[in-house]
DNA sequence: TATGAATGAGTATTCATTCAT
DNA sequence: GATGAATGAATACTCATTCAT
């Protein structure tokens, strides 16, 4: 545990990524993981830095070596999770001859089933419940998740219209209607009816079918 | 902050200390109004009792004469607003010969336009953002607003199905799809895109038309 | 209940002691009684003026018509009780030919038995527990109860010495030793062993006999 | 208040913030000492945590690192003092051939003189004045000090009776009479006559002699 | 780098007291 | 006189943050 500092530094320099750096990264991850759990369970205001440290099994002062303030920690946590989540729908990936409906079914429906399993719904909830206090989070979320998805959807719906798959152009004007059930599901499952959850994937699919019906 | 000092002084003098039913009611209303504003603007955690009192133009201790704790004040405020909001859709009010689609258009669409104007969206947001800390509020909201609306919608959709207005029974199974755009709109306007709002009424209407389309 | 004010005043003046004065005195007594109970049960610090008023079945502001402050109320309560308690032992009352021991037995022992029954021990306890905060109370108690008793006892012991009933003069120097068991009993019963009380009268008597033994 | 500002500043600088067992112990001692002084001077209710901290020359929040509440601080302080005070009289220590009277004189009388000097009378007073609010303290006091002493005394008096030193068995029934003057002295000196104190040791001794007189 | 003792600003809550009715 | 709504000073307690070790 107690090697001479110089020896440690040399080693680190020699490898370019010494054990201390690795440990540092591990500590950082532990802090983020612990903080996320706490924020999800208690919300920002009721989460204490001490609880985060305890959960990460480190000292109370250590998180401050990685994040200057509690606010920064929160932002860092959410930023990481949001940045890590890629948009699942990319119009460019549509197979030749594949209808838009088929494409959306193929890509979005499985993604929906992942929404809750991979904790994305929980992150979305956090952005919703704490967004008023942290506009940055909302900005990030919008930029990384919300807006890109709408852009893709709009393009897809435009293609569907152009290719005659959609009779009317109204959906092109309101791509929101495709994702409304998702948000409804998040609100329902995460905030309003935590016991009796709806199946977001199914809801999305049924809605999709109805909207694309001729 | 927003009043001239002299106006404040006059008010203070006007507000007496003696017993008076009228005064009591007025004070209570002032507290509730002030508290609601503060809670909406700052959230529960960042609202101080002192700020509420200041906003209501009363002394720091006065709110405690009406609500024993900050929690109780919050609950009281939200409870009052939620209880006061009646569900606008009552299947029994459908005019003879009126289609379900026409009925929903007639009743829901104007209600949607009221959602934001009358502050109901704001209350919904508060229930969403603080519901984790105050499960009672979620219970109330569900009991008074959410569940009753779904019940009515389900009955209407069943009628639409029975009367041949709907070809498929899938909507009867998922009345949620009718209100999904509303929640999407609330989330969008109140939490995600406070600058660029969507028109919840229009969204609801377009969605309605698409879902009822033959 | 609602007579004209003037009629009431006239009546009061006519009798010289009208019903309002009588009622006033009754209210005052109710306040004192209620306050004493509260102070005994909760101590000064934990007694609220509101609790006193509630117990006296009057409004919160009414006690202030009789006592300007809570301190004054406390002082008034104790003062009244202490002043009302006469010293039981008066050397002048000794019957001709009666030994001092016999006299003390005749007068003190029954008084001791009253100490607890009539709430004097409770008052003494209140003076002990709150005396540090209210030196006035201690002064009153000393002046009205403590010192006079010692004076009488000293005189009696001197007489006993002069009349040969006591062989030694040591008790004359320490009349305290006669009352020590009383205070011990008060401390024991009121503060240390509220469940298993000692019989103060018996303790006093046994001690008396031992001290007067030849 | 009692220190020059510069002295205070120096101290503050000397007190570091880092972990240190020695510092911890010193801080804890400072808190307990300061709290005891405050409680003795003001009583529990009138002692503020801020005053304790100021007296200990630490920050307002520091005492809470050692005692979770004001109640716990008070209990901790008294508990420590009561636990630290051993009963001076142990029947087993009686020298062979030593009379009980001589033994009591040898052991108790010096102890009495210590009672006030070492602050035991003050602790006893605190237990008396705050015992109603803190029954635990009374329990501790009884268990550690009061009951053990009575047990020893009863044994000694029984021995004195058995060995013919006492003619009557009445004292065996009432060992309280031996300690009555002590409590009288405490009440007198600590609460009733803080100016004109009695000599508890002398009172005890005179009483002892009178009770053991043949 | 990590630690955790110490800091002190911030806040909910209480309650003696006032005074218009 | 009595009432009780309103006042606001006082205070226990929390917790993000700092920094000597």
Q: Termini of chain A, distance in Å?
A: 70 Å
Q: Whole-number radius of gyration of chain A?
A: 22 Å
Largest sheet of chain A: none
Q: What is the helix content of chain A?
A: over 70%
For the secondary structure, the number of strands of chain A is 0
Could you state the oligomeric state of the chains shown? homotetramer
**Alpha-beta classification of chain A:** mainly alpha
> How many individual helices of chain A?
11
Low-pLDDT runs of chain A: 1-18
Explain this structure to me?
The structure is a homotetramer of 214-residue chains. With 214 residues, chain A is mostly helical. Chain A folds into two domains: 5-70, Homeodomain-like (Arc Repressor Mutant, subunit A, Orthogonal Bundle); 85-212, Tetracycline Repressor, domain 2, CATH 1.10.357. In chain A, 73% of the residues lie in helices and 0% in strands. The first copy, chain A, has helices at 5-15, 19-46, 49-56, 63-66, 70-84, 100-117, 120-130, 135-162, 170-173, 176-192, 200-212. In chain A, α5 runs parallel beside α8 (135-162), α7 packs across α10 and α10 runs antiparallel to α11. Mean pLDDT of chain A is 87; it is low at 1-18. Chains in contact: A-B, C-D. Chain B binds a DNA duplex (21 and 21 nucleotides) through α2. Chains A, B, C, D: Residues 25-85 form the HTH tetR-type domain. Chains A, B, C, D: Keywords: DNA-binding. Chains A, B, C, D: This is TetR/AcrR family transcriptional regulator. Chains A, B, C, D: Residues 48-67 bind DNA. Chains A, B, C, D: It holds the Pfam family TetR_N.
């Amino acid at each position: 545990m107690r090697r001479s500092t110089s020896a440690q530094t040399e080693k680190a320099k020699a490898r370019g990524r010494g054990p201390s750096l690795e440990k540092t990264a591990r500590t950082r991850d532990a802090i983020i993981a612990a903080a996320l759990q706490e924020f999800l369970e208690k919300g920002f205001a009721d989460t204490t830095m001490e609880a985060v440290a305890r959960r990460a099994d480190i000292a109370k002062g250590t998180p401050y070596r990685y994040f200057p303030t509690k606010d920064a920690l929160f932002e860092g946590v959410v930023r990481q999770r949001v940045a890590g989540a890629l948009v699942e729908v990319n119009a460019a990936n549509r197979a030749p001859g594949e209808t838009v409906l088929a494409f959306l079914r193929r890509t979005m429906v499985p993604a929906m089933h992942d929404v809750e399993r991979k904790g994305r719904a929980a992150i979305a909830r956090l952005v919703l419940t704490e967004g008023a206090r942290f506009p940055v989070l909302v900005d990030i979320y919008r930029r990384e998740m919300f807006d890109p998805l709408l852009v893709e959807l709009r393009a897809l719906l435009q293609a569907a219209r152009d290719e005659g798959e959609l009779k009317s152009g109204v959906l092109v004007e309101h791509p929101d209607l495709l994702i409304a059930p998702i948000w409804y599901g998040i609100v329902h499952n995460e905030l309003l009816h935590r016991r009796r959850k709806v199946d977001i994937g199914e809801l999305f699919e049924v809605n999709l079918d109805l909207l694309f019906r001729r």
